[in-house]
Amino acid sequence: MARNKKKIHQQVTIEGVANSGTAFGRVEGKVVFTEGVIPGDIVDIQVARKRNGYDTGYVTQFHTYSKLRVEPFCTHFDICGGCTWQNVEYATQLQFKQQLVDDAFRLLKRTPGFPEILPIVASPYDRYYRNKMEFTFTNGAYVHDPNYDKSNPPQKKPGCGFHVKGQFANVFDIERCYLQASLSNEIRLSVKSYALMHSLPFYDLRNHTGYMRNLIIRNTSLNHLMVIVVVAEDKPDVLLPMMQHIHHTFPEITSLHYCINTKKNDIIYDLDVTLFAGEPTMIEEIDGIRYQLGPRAFFQTNTEQARNLYRRTLELAQLKPDDEVYDLYTGLGSIALLAAKHCKKVVGIELVEAAIEDARKNASLNNITNCAFYAGDMAKIFTETFIEENGRANVVITDPPRAGMHKDVCDQLLQLAPEKIVYVSCNPVTQARDIQLLINDYAVTVLQPFDQFPQTYHVECIALLERRKA
To answer: Is residue 2 very low, low, confident or very high in pLDDT (cuts 50, 70, 90)?
Structure first.
């Protein structure tokens, strides 16, 4: 018996944006989510999945395009998963993000005394704002041609670029990316040309064969530039001449590295990265604190907006000289080191051991002696015993990953009972979920969205929680 075809919703008016870059309309009161649309579009949607209360699907036809649409400035917009909202003006993107934060806190806003959400803080730059990009080599770059003759498919060529939206095994070749300064494009194209000229095989993501794997380019506001070339085999006779070529062609590079990755994934955090030329690290500076960044160090990718985010975080914390502070999910101590000069003591906790090593080095680099850093699983290390050994902090700053805080961490915060919690989040949905666990003991007094990633749906949010008086 043939299966029934899933329904097509016809002429659905897209009403608003939703989490993860989707948008939604309604059909007979039922919400329908889909990608690739913006409010004001009128489309037909093929239902892919039916859920209780909503459907998800994909667009089969556009009837009317939204008046909010503009022409994307990047030729790769249709296939790249990096920039979701290039097809609307930046001011409109900010409105969308403001709405996403508002939606995330919809239930909490019913709490008596819940504050108005402040206007989102725009990024100083909406292009060329990233300080790190990672490109992937492919032996068969994806060809975007929806009208190709299936009996005579287009020939794929080697390329270097990003993964196709939703297709990890497919990589498209980049002509120009607008997310990092123009020198990044020049370096990528030069390395690609060298590899082609010398017949170095590009990587096959399906069969895990080939030589050229990845190219990572990082920069700082102090004009330091780091390049990491990742290859799949240890072939010094091939690798070293290429590294020498890069070194001579781009004297602007202050830190040039390579990495041999024989694994089936692209992660290099567990691998040795070898310095070829220049300094082993690069330096970033925010408000007098210098951060030493190695090739595997994590740092906020929008430096100028990170500066604003950290300033606002400390402004809300209102630290006093006798305050003791816990900085949860501290990373390499970005916020902890800035906070140290305003308080008595800062204790930072982070899962990644390498990040904690960086935090300790950066404390030493800045002659900061009132910071202590510990590595471990937050839910296991942040216990009553840990608090007894390190002091009962009266201010907590927390900046967890997108998944938010573990319930045990929230429970421990309630036991610790600090006067203030400054919660920095890259995912307002999980932030609102965690705050719901704290709301009986803490009042949200400030909620401030920040845009760290223009052209995307991602939005950050800082919440100030103050302990309720008995």
So the answer is: very low
Start-to-end CA distance of the chain, whole Å, equals 66
Q: What secondary structure does DSSP assign to 285-311, as a single string?
A: EETTEEEEE-TT----S-HHHHHHHHH
| Model pLDDT for residues 32-49, shown as the tens digit of each residue | 999 999 999 999 999 999
Q: Is position 426 annotated as part of the catalytic site?
A: yes
Mean pLDDT along residues 370-389: 96
**pLDDT > 90? residue 290:** yes
Confidence tier at 152 by pLDDT (50, 70, 90):
low
Cβ-Cβ contacts under 8 Å for 55 (sequence gap 6 or more): 9, 27, 30, 31, 32, 33, 45, 47, 48, 49
Q: Let me know how long the chain is.
A: 470
**At a CB cut-off of 8 Å and minimum separation 6, what does 79 contact?**
142, 144, 164, 165, 172
Residue 142 CB-half CA count within 13 A: 21
Per-residue pLDDT, 224:
97
Of the candidates 118, 124, 89, the residue with the CA atom closest to the CA atom of residue 101: 118
CA atoms of 376 and 97, how far apart (whole Å): 33
Q: φ and ψ at 63, to 5 degrees?
A: -95, -40
DSSP 366-408: TT--SEEEEES-HHHHSSHHHHHHH---SEEEE---TT---HH
Separation between Cα atoms, residue 52 and residue 173, nearest integer Å: 40
Q: What are phi and psi of 108, to 5 degrees?
A: -65, -25
Query: Quick one: tokens of 83?
Result: 């920039």
Q: Show the tokens assigned to 136.
A: 């992937």
Looking at every residue in the chain, the average pLDDT score rounds to: 94
Mean pLDDT of 210-239: 97
Structure tokens at 39: 């409010």
Give percent of the chain above pLDDT 90: 88
| DSSP state, residue 209 | B
Catalytic residue among 80, 410, 426, 461: 426
Distance, CA of 205 to CA of 304 (rounded, Å): 35
Helix axes 407-416, 428-438, angle to 10 degrees: 40
Can you spell out the DSSP letters for 11-40?
EEEEEEE-GGG-EEEEETTEEEEESS--TT
Looking at residues 125-136, what average pLDDT do you find?
97
Of the candidates 176, 185, 183, the residue with the CA atom closest to the CA atom of residue 251: 183
